[in-house]
Amino acid sequence: MVHSVYSDREVFLRELISNAADACDKLRYAAIANPDLLAGDPQLAVSLAFDKKASILTIADNGIGMNRDELIDNLGTIARSGTKAFMENAKEGDSDEALHLIGQFGVGFYSAFMVAKTVEVYSTRAGEKAGWVWISDGTGSFTVEPSDGAPARGTRIKLNFRKQEKNLLDELELRRIVRTYSDHIAIPITLAETDNEGRIQA
């Protein structure tokens, strides 16, 4: 029943790409007043990378990024209450209430937890040096810690997929989903397969 709310779970990618593109648009707007925010990396883009063996999909952007407070404000409410409430309503088959919660808190993270057992969000706010990582398993708690592994600017979301959802980690399948839901996005979107060291496959 829970998957019927999400049109075969594919909507998670649409929402996360949309969020990434929005972050790029926000940076472009902010850079009108402060061009230095784009320094060193002016070409805004969204990139997807997947590792089928490790069951990992990564969605990254070099947009506005988030600092510690923004990660807590933007994602903390979802982890604390929204996901749990959504899961309960979806499991009970109350799709109307589930859809209401999607609208209230933002579908992106709910749908991410439909396919992922844990979600890691690495982010650095444009114009700031400190990087952070937000981690949750969608059961009502989360952590936010400093991270040397965060991008220099922007956000990288790492989804650790559930075993039964691994069929989505396929190049043709991912390209089809991107074309279906995200073709209208003006920001360039790239897709690559990585090995277990995170290197792009030739």
From TrEMBL:
Keyword Coiled coil part of the UniProt annotation: no
CDD domains xref list: HATPase_Hsp90-like
InterPro entries: HATPase_C_sf, HATPase_dom, Heat_shock_protein_90_CS, Hsp90_fam, Hsp90_N
Entry keyword set: ATP-binding, Chaperone, Nucleotide-binding
Gene3D superfamilies in alphabetical order: Histidine kinase-like ATPase, C-terminal domain
SUPFAM superfamilies xref list: ATPase domain of HSP90 chaperone/DNA topoisomerase II/histidine kinase
GO MF, any single term: ATP binding
Positions of the Histidine kinase/HSP90-like ATPase domain: 8-165
Entry's family note: Belongs to the heat shock protein 90 family.
Protein name: Histidine kinase/HSP90-like ATPase domain-containing protein
